[in-house]
Amino acid sequence: MLCSLVLHHVPDAVPFVRKMQEHARGRVVLVEMMETPGALEVPFFERVHGFAPTPLPGLPDVLNLLWAMDIFPDVTMVSADAAVLDADREAAVEQLRRRLGVSEGTETDERLLAAADELLEETPEGWAVRGVAPRRQAIVTWRPG
After folding, report:
1. 138 phi and psi, to 5 degrees?
2. SS3 129
3. DSSP string of 25-37?
């Protein structure tokens, strides 16, 4: 049973994990990020909308949940990827507009553009958010029962 980058979206994860265990034929495999993809937007969200969104749970939260369920998985960390929005600055800004629900030419867009000037930095991999850690993922596995 494979679940990739889904568990952090599930409001009540305990029944979800139990159901995965019931249907697993051998192993349960989760792929999860240390910090969810939304971590890229948090610094922008605060500047554009005036408050920080509630962060989605990441790998530490998932592990705590599993341990509370008496599940003690094997965890394999995958090499980190740079937290890049896009190779092109304008495409990165457009992506931020979509992620933050900002329409071009509005007051909120002005705040977004000001934040982009402050927070976006060009890296060899593309345009990244200053201060956001590389994306680290893990493969979490266990045998049910």
Report:
1. -135, 150
2. strand
3. SS-EEEEEESS-G
> What radius of gyration, in Å, describes the C-alpha atoms of the chain?
18
With b for 16 or more beta-carbon neighbours within 10 A and e for fewer, the 10-30 pattern comes to: eeebeebbeebbeebeeebbb
Residue ranges of alpha helices (H) inside the chain are 13-23, 42-49, 59-68, 89-100, 107-119
User: Is 84 within 8 Å of 128 (Cβ atoms)?
Assistant: yes
pTM of the complete model = 0.75
State how far the Cα of 102 lies from the Cα of 135, in Å rounded to an integer.
25
SS3 state at 53:
coil
Say what the pLDDT of residue 34 is: 86
Structure tokens at 107: 């007051």
Are the C-beta atoms of residues 100 and 110 closer than 8 Å to each other?
A: no
pLDDT at site 79: 82
Q: Name 121's bridge partners.
A: 128
